[in-house]
Design goal:
Blueprint lengths: L1 E8 L4 E7 L1 H5 L9 E14 L5 E7 L2 E5 L2 E5 L3 E5 L5 E17 L2 H12 L2 H6 L15 E3 L4 H14 L6 H24 L6 H21 L6 H8 L3 H12 L3 H18 L4 H7 L5 H12 L3 H14 L1
Antiparallel strand pairs: 1-2, 1-3, 3-8, 4-7, 4-8, 5-6, 5-8, 7-9
Helix pairs in contact: 2-5, 4-5, 6-7, 6-8, 6-9, 10-11
Length: 316
């Protein structure tokens, strides 16, 4: 069975290599590249990595499975996995149809250059306070949603060009990825520092579980979401979830649900949907409770918001 691996190199040159028994070939190649993007297309793949490079694995088509830190994680489209340098992990794919993904390898030199560039940007430092240490950062390893942070959103912007094998300025791409990675890392560190916990390892595990709760909210905010099921998804007690969620994200789970519902409501209202339908679709008890929450958030009733939006569109 043949597998294909496309290498998009940092100098912008496209080098296609049809590979036979890709997993067997990669058994002889340590996955510790520097400043390289790998586009893989695999049906049958199994590899143990003993000393990885710093990598960002972006799901594209199908599911990739990894086992590291004594846990198995699955990577799909809309998600990315962050793996630190010198990490040990296993990757395996068994699928009748090809599974595709992109893997970004970043060198220590690139991370240093991006950090140096950020340290000279006063506005960036105000939003994302950079640590004063020259030591290479240790990134939080977990599955991230691409819509939850700056790095993920940038990777999604890159996806179409990479999938189409477009010629890009890859020196700039790698620098931008490293910059977004660092800014996202500093924001994550800021959120984790808010959690009242002495041990770093415990704080990281708590943060992972809180991110699981937040993802559960993003996936289910239109439903009648109960605190009990949210705590169960995060493997935390209700009290612990309430307390630490606000410590990390500055907002309670209920407030998170409400913000997502109202954000979605603005789109539905602008599209002309009936307010009673919007209220029902977004999980509000009735139109009155929806209108009250909407007005409190945006300062105008949904009906007036719709009229103002139409006027703004007409003016444009």
């Amino acid at each position: 069975m043949q597998s294909n691996m496309t290498l998009l190199t940092g100098n912008g040159m496209l080098n296609r290599q049809p590979l036979v028994r890709m997993s067997e070939q990669l058994q002889q190649t340590p996955l510790n590249f520097d400043d390289l993007i790998i586009h893989s297309r695999l049906r049958d793949f199994d590899k143990s990595v003993s000393d990885s490079g710093l990598s960002i694995k972006l799901g594209h088509i199908g599911t990739e499975r990894y086992f590291f830190r004594n846990r198995q994680v699955s990577l799909q489209r809309g998600e990315y996995l962050l793996v630190n340098r010198h990490q040990t992990f296993d990757c395996f794919i068994r699928n009748p149809t090809p599974v595709e993904g992109f893997c970004f390898y970043l060198s220590p030199r690139l991370i240093q250059e991006a950090a140096s560039g950020l340290s000279r940007n006063t506005e960036d430092l105000l939003d994302h306070p950079a640590p004063k240490s020259n030591k290479a950062p240790r990134f939080l390893e977990k599955i991230y949603r691409t819509d939850e942070n700056e790095l993920g959103r940038y990777l999604e912007q890159l996806r179409p060009a990479l999938a189409a094998h477009q010629q890009l300025d890859f020196n700039q791409v790698f620098f931008d990825v490293a910059t977004a990675l660092l800014r996202t890392h500093w924001r994550t560190e800021q959120e984790m520092r808010g959690i009242d916990c002495a041990r770093r390892s415990t704080r990281e595990e708590l943060y992972r579980r809180l991110c699981t709760a937040r993802q559960y909210i993003y996936d289910n905010y239109c439903n009648d979401l109960q605190l009990e099921e949210l705590a169960k998804a995060a493997l935390l007690s209700k009290y612990h979830l309430l307390r630490t969620y606000k410590q990390a994200f500055g907002i309670t789970p209920y407030q998170q649900v409400l913000e997502l519902r109202l954000e979605k409501a603005t789109d539905l209202v602008q599209q002309g949907e009936k307010l009673s339908s919007v209220a029902r679709e977004l999980g509000f008890s009735d139109r009155r409770s929806f209108t009250k929450a909407f007005k409190k958030k945006f300062g105008v009733a949904p009906s007036h918001f719709r009229v103002e939006h139409k006027g703004a569109v007409a003016a444009v």
